[in-house]
Amino acid sequence: MNDSTLALLGGAPAITASGPHFAWPPITEADRRAVDRQLETAVSIPDRSGVVADLEDALASYFGVRHVVTTCTGTAALHSMYAAAGIGPGDEVIIPALTFHATATPLFHLGAHPVLADVDERGRLDLEEAARRVTDRTKAVVAVHLWGLPEDMDALTSFADEHELMLLEDGSHAHGAGWNRQMVGTFGTASAFSLNGPKPLSAGEGGFVATDDTELYYRVLLHGQYNKRCRREIPAAHPLARFAVTGMGLKLRIHPLAAALARAQLTRLEDHLAGRQAVAARMCAVLDGVPGISVPDLPAATRPSWYALPLRYEPAELDGLPIERFLDALHAEGATEADRPGSTCPLHTHPLFRTPGALLPGYADGHGLPADGFPAAEHVHATTLKLPVWHHEGDVRLADAYTTAITKVATNAKDLT
Ligand SMILES: *Cc1c(COP(=O)(O)O)cnc(C)c1O
């Protein structure tokens, strides 16, 4: 037995450091102090004051947008964004078929239809497929920036212009990511972000909507931030001001402790992104030549947030070794954080998208789903391996250990077939 014997076949594992190997968000003394201070200040904030105002101001300035409204989750942010954009019963919104379900699901609660469109071989929205799905009910198209790799925003902006659609963004994987030096989340009429636990900017639980459109901002407030916020932020003379007390009847405020955590994390976001960029570049440089593995092919215009490093698995280069077996071997080597995408998957595979009527009265089964499914979304999902991207110099050895483990499994794959 030598170094190259795979751990799955009884060899020594490539990685011996005990797990978990990746934890997010990184919690510092500054985070603890911020949350502690907030506990002493206020644990409920009904208006735009204190840490909620601080966080929204800091986000607005970071993104360079006029308005930011925080919410309790990213799902709520998407819901408020769609409602505020005036999307309603019968309207259609084009969503990439490969994303996390909450990009689309709030539309069901507005009586609207998410219209799925297939992706290209990189997992980005396929604009020819999207064009085929445009009808006279189509109101908007949503850019997702999967895994923090920005969509081609030149192409998406022209697509939206050409078809006279509103461009909206779900930036939940992509805080601080950019296209041509412009931050994602600032290309469309509005954008929604999650601040959930593992996201590049984390509040634990939270989200926000960003927009330059003041009317849309008022409607975001009315959707989920009723009473004091609406009364103080919507001018009394505005025709919508009379709805301030109830808004649209939902309450989707962020928790002040979550806002305090996100505010403290935001101070370090640029450092986190720069660290991830360096580690991702290092990992890609090694993995680029490994048989059976392709690294993302990034246009020069992109600045990713590296929510994850999505690798494409090419079984044909490894005598047809199934991805499950490759991953088992990788886990046996100790690369326990290597994974396949779970909940981020082709949306038409969820029962909610196939047979929504069982839960949501008025929705016909199979609406807008093509008989042959979404072959590219299925292929991309079935062949993606994802790795965490560390941001800290101290974790470079772990990153190297992961690329070593992948190299070891790939170069010895013949022993597994
Ligand atoms: C996480 C996520 C959401 C939902 O955010 P929550 O804060 O979990 O509600 C929506 N879209 C995408 C792409 C996400 O990754």
UniProtKB/TrEMBL annotation:
The keyword Transferase applies. The keyword NADP does not apply. GO terms for biological process: polysaccharide biosynthetic process. The active site is at K199 (proton acceptor). Belongs to the DegT/DnrJ/EryC1 family. L-glutamine:2-deoxy-scyllo-inosose/scyllo-inosose aminotransferase subfamily. It comes from Streptomyces luteoverticillatus (Streptoverticillium luteoverticillatus). Signal peptide: none annotated. This is Aminotransferase class I/II-fold pyridoxal phosphate-dependent enzyme.
